């Protein structure tokens, strides 16, 4: 068993596009106007429900508990009467299912992801059945995505978005958080719920051999202001979400496992 070393340098080219988690794609899937985000077939819906609640949730829940993940603030969303959109910083591969099993539960959660998630040969269909909405390639694909999002939110379900798009493992800062995705909350008249993932050094006998433990904070819902325009509400939801996440990230106990350095920085480059 190797000791966990803090401060390892990871170089990146651009905060918005560098991806440290590369998925092996065996085929290319085009997400256009023919792609069905929601399958209304009765047998498929039953299969998807059983897969989600009876298999995936129990198994994945055990994984998150085993990893020592702690969640604070779930009480902030327990009384919500509508669907809502969660906006979270993207710092761990388990983000692919963490929100569904620890934050949104018992409501069903749907996550927006790169189309690579549904392009993996053999399991793409499984990822889709568990509630993954791939980003579209065409205008009509975007229309279909928007309709699907409207449907789940009107059904009081949860949409999960990681605006940073790419995973930076154990990252303790906040990368560019685009405004675009906040239109889904505003246009559907549902609240935005900010969520911040932070990290703490582990304790116990094997503390030197364990990775930092994730501590997650769920904020209070941010509702649209009826006195503002659509664009002003989008900006407001964005700013309040970023403000909440940054407040949690600035906690002095938030520990960085890796030192992310931009390529070309004269202070760190080889």
Describe it.
By secondary structure, the chain is α/β, with parallel strands linked by helices. Helices cover 30% and strands 17% of the residues. It contains 6 helices and 9 strands; from the N terminus they run βαββαβαβαβαββαβ. Helix 1 (42-66) packs across helix 2. The two termini are 29 Å apart.
In short:
The protein is an alpha/beta fold. 30% of the residues lie in helices and 17% in strands. Strands 2-8-7-3-6-4-5 form a seven-stranded mixed sheet, with helices on both faces.
Can you tag this structure with a few keywords?
270 residues; 6 helices; 9 strands; 17% strand
Produce the secondary structure layout.
Layout: E1 8-12, H1 42-66, E2 70-72, E3 84-88, H2 95-104, E4 109-113, H3 124-129, E5 132-134, H4 139-154, E6 158-161, H5 183-187, E7 192-200, E8 213-218, H6 230-249, E9 258-262
Parallel strand pairs: 1-9, 2-8, 3-6, 3-7, 4-5, 4-6
Antiparallel strand pairs: 7-8
Helix pairs in contact: 1-2
Number of β-strand runs: 9
Low-confidence stretches: none
**What is the string of SSEs from the N terminus onward?**
EHEEHEHEHEHEEHE
Q: What percentage of the residues does DSSP assign to strands (E)?
A: 15-25%
